[in-house]
Amino acid sequence: MTGLTTDLRRFRLPLREALTTAHGEVLHRDGLLLSIGDGTHIGWGEATPFPGWSVSDIESSAAALATVLVALSVVEDPDDPRLDHLLDDLEPEPAARAALSGAIADLRARRSGVSLAATLSVAPASTVAVNAMISAASPGDVAEQASAAAADGYRTLKVKVGVAEPAVDVERLAAARGSAGSELELRIDANGAWDVETAVAVLDDLSEFDISFCEEPTKGLEAIAVVGARSAIPVAIDESARTVDDIAAALATGSIDVVIVKPQALGGPDLAIRAVRLAAEFGATAVVTSMIDGAIGVAHALHVAAASGLDRAHGLATSSLLKADVGPAPELDAGRMVVPGASGIGIDPFDTLPL
Ligand SMILES: [Mg+2]
Questions:
Q1: How far is the CA of 120 from the centre of ligand 1 (A)?
Q2: CATH 3.30.390.10 location in the chain
Q3: pLDDT tens for residues 199-250?
Q4: Catalytic residue numbers, as ranges
Q5: Cβ-proximal residues to 276 (8 Å cutoff; 6+ apart), any chain
Q6: Domain spanning 5-113: CATH superfamily
Q7: Ligand 1 center to 215 CA (angstroms)
Q8: pLDDT tens track for 4-51
Q9: Is 2.40.10.120 the CATH classification of the domain at 119-338?
Q10: Is the pTM of this model over 0.85?
Q11: Disulfide engineering: 131 pairs with which of 63, 180, 191, 313, CB 3.0-4.6 Å?
């Protein structure tokens, strides 16, 4: 028997529009594609750390995965437990871990002839609802984006807040609710923009628009829990939680209602599904989300969402933000994303990657 075949390739995906974040402008997404093959099947994993957000960056991810390739060269069997030990070694590098965990899970699922979702759940969904993202600055543009999303079949809209003054956000949410109608679910994401007192006051002002939850109203798990305990709107943790342990500690406060689960940020589909189940144990819920990952990363997140048992909108409709991708983006139909039916993640990357 010959050893596993491996390959590591770099890619750069230009965004359609520059993204302004607290850490500066993001013009493109740099990542790595890892493949592990057994001679018959190939499993794919992706590492696409988000600058200023991820613990790891592209260079540390590449270095960590280069070490993994050396270790993998002596492994012959995809079920060898040494593969799982390699995952433990990658704990400080979640994006690299997500690539290795994803590639192993994809390869094992393909060898079994089942979808990745079917290896994570006994009853995976064949489609999952996804939310539309609304980031327009002016209330008029928000109203326009909201009605366009509703016309496209989206039943859940997520509005970015915290960039403008609170009074403007109140107008923006009034516009979103007004144009979306009373049936659609509205969520907001402040990305940690407010301090605790501002967050409590703004959420109180926004509560009349029937908002299901606010992601990261302020920075830090403890502060978010304080807001959650006092707020008129349930709160969600996202970037303040780096690990499954962080999520457990936050849920233990009893003031967190929703956990945003990003397989790329946590370290792969195995940890992501663990986070989903942890939220359920605490009586909270989860939303599986991509971080403007390439198509392979989105596919992993889609399978986690399909296995989550959560029939609510997930944050996976990010591929349209990219001008070029590493593979085919998932099919979207009336606000629902279709889980590919083939084994493993159900897609393969393009032969030529954008660089
Ligand atoms: Mg968020």
A1: 24
A2: 5-113
A3: 999 999 999 999 999 999 999 999 999 999 999 999 999 999 999 999 999 9
A4: 160, 262
A5: 259, 261, 286, 288, 304, 308, 310
A6: Enolase-like, N-terminal domain (3.30.390.10)
A7: 5
A8: 999 999 999 999 999 877 677 899 999 999 999 999 999 999 999 987
A9: no
A10: yes
A11: 313
